[in-house]
Amino acid sequence: MENLQEFMTSWDRYMNLGGVVSLAVAFLIFIYHEIKVISVRDLKDRYDYVNLHEIRFFWFSVLALILASAFFANTIATLQIEKKGILWFYVRLFITVCFVIIAYFVFYSMVRIYYPKSVEKRLKKIRNTPRISSSGNAMRKLDEEEDDAHLEPSQIAEEESNIHSVDYDVWLDDKTGEKKIEKYYDYQHAIECPSCGFTTFKVDKEEVNQHPTQTEAGLLTKHYKCEYCGHRESMELPLAKLSSNVK
């Protein structure tokens, strides 16, 4: 009995230590990501960083929190285990392992289903935040009709082609005439799935059925797949005719 008490005391001490360390890791991952986001001064680079890394870092934080909960759960009912015997220690350990497995899949699904919508809101905010020119002036984002005058013919053709859903944002400093052109790939972003309603519907692949020429429009098929429910759909989109000055 005395050996069991000593073992349980040491066990609880290590479990509490593991829980505290895991909580600290979760916090540090979150803080590191947020500091990294803020430290990226160029808003387009910040947009790309959030787009590539935010969900991954959020998931790492969640994993650390799950691990912390598992450590702390292994200190529950220690006095009862000391009284009833070592068998209940293994029962508690088994229940904790089951909790970790269930929590992993539940939170993994939640992160995949719900968090992308939050990320999209953040990306939209970053994308529409006024840029600052080298002269320190707030720049104005041009609308679709205005920005064509500032794009190269090849860039205009790229926007109109529907391939990879390329989109250009043009920012203009009205005082100095300085402009900044940013390129975005909309196919990297998920939309609402028509089947399950979650923001997990993305372009899986694209096929050019008919290449455009200077006299005839082309045809593109986009194949969508939901990363949650597996729903698939295909959509045909016209490809604009090639401009005479685009090779």
Describe, in short, the structure shown.
The protein has three domains: 2-128, no CATH class; 131-188, no CATH class; 190-247, N-terminal domain of TfIIb.
Proportion in helices: 40-55%
- Overall structural domain count: 3
In sequence order, what are the helices and strands, one letter per element?
Answer: HHHHEHHEEEEE
Unreliable stretches, pLDDT < 50, 5 or more residues?
Answer: none
The multimeric state of the shown protein is: single chain
Count every helix, treating DSSP H or I runs of 4 or more residues as helices.
6
Per DSSP E runs of 2 or more residues, the count of β-strands stands at 6
**Strands of the biggest beta sheet: in what spatial order?**
1-2-3
Could you tell me the radius of gyration in angstroms?
Answer: 27 Å
Backbone structural class: alpha+beta
- What's the N-to-C terminus distance? 85 Å
* Average pLDDT rating: 87
Strand content: 15-25%
- How would a crystallographer describe the biggest sheet? 3 strands, antiparallel
Which term fits the overall shape?
elongated
